[in-house]
């Protein structure tokens, strides 16, 4: 588990090899075991076809990933619920990323879906946030790790 977490990278260039639908479903189903307050299960997934990808006009076409999916989070009735649901959906995405990575498949997490223009292209209804648009596929290049600060620098102990 630690090795999967440590070795995962945000992938920017993919091989054209197909990712099996069955594998995608396995990773997505596993991802939905993400923690979510009040069991809102706020995540929704849009698989993007060629036409939608062209309209988004991403600068590298998501590294030519064979699969691109937008992950939406349904907002709740309050601002707190919106934040909690977005956090739960981020957990969902990370679960997906790690499950796929354990099987050799990487993801490119892009925030391209956040703009008003791109929300329209994706047909995102009011009441939803786009947490990420993910390119998914077998990595062509695996980047070097971006070092993180020692965690001790981030820890305070309260009395
Ligand atoms: C909410 C969120 C949005 C992100 N949006 C982008 C993005 O638009 N473009 C991009 O290249 N990477 C994006 N990333 C990926 C980060 O840039 C990447 O995780 C970071 O550089 C660390 O690299 P690593 O994941 O390979 O360790 C995003 C990550 C998160 C969590």
Structure description:
Helix content is 37%, strand content 18%. The chain is built from six helices and four strands. Helix 2 (21-31) crosses helix 5 (79-102). The protein has helices at residues 2-7, 21-31, 50-56, 61-64, 79-102, 116-122; strands at 43-47, 67-74, 106-110, 128-137. The protein starts with a helix and ends in a 22-residue tail after the last strand. It has one domain (8-142): NADH Oxidase, CATH 3.40.109. With 159 residues, it is of the alpha+beta class. It has a four-stranded antiparallel beta sheet with strand order 1-2-4-3. Keywords: Flavoprotein, FMN, NAD, NADP, Oxidoreductase. This is Nitroreductase. It comes from Neobacillus bataviensis. Residues 55-138 form the Nitroreductase domain. GO terms for molecular function: oxidoreductase activity.
What's a quick, concise take on this entry?
The protein is of the alpha+beta class and 159 residues long. The chain contains six helices and four strands; from the N terminus they run ααβααβαβαβ.
> What is the count of structural domains?
1
Strand content: 15-25%
Tell me the CATH architecture: 3-Layer(aba) Sandwich
CATH topology value: NADH Oxidase
Instruction: Count the DSSP helices.
Output: 6
Low-confidence stretches: none
Give the overall silhouette. globular
Pfam family, one: Nitroreductase
Cofactor: FMN
Protein name: Nitroreductase
Organism: Neobacillus bataviensis
């Amino acid at each position: 588990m630690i090795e999967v977490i440590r070795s995962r990278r945000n992938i920017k260039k993919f091989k054209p090899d197909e990712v099996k639908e069955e594998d995608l479903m396995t990773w997505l189903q596993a991802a939905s075991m993400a923690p979510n307050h009040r069991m809102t299960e706020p995540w929704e997934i849009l698989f993007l076809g060629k036409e939608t990808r062209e309209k988004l006009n991403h600068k590298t076409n998501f590294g030519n990933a064979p699969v691109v999916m937008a992950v939406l989070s349904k907002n709740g009735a309050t601002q707190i619920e919106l934040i909690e649901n977005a956090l739960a959906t981020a957990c969902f995405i990370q679960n997906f990323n790690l499950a796929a990575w354990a099987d050799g498949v990487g993801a490119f997490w892009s925030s391209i879906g956040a703009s008003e223009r791109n929300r329209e292209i994706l047909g995102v209804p009011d009441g939803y946030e786009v947490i990420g648009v993910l390119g998914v596929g077998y990595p062509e290049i695996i980047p070097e790790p971006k070092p993180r600060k020692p965690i001790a620098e981030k820890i305070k102990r309260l009395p």
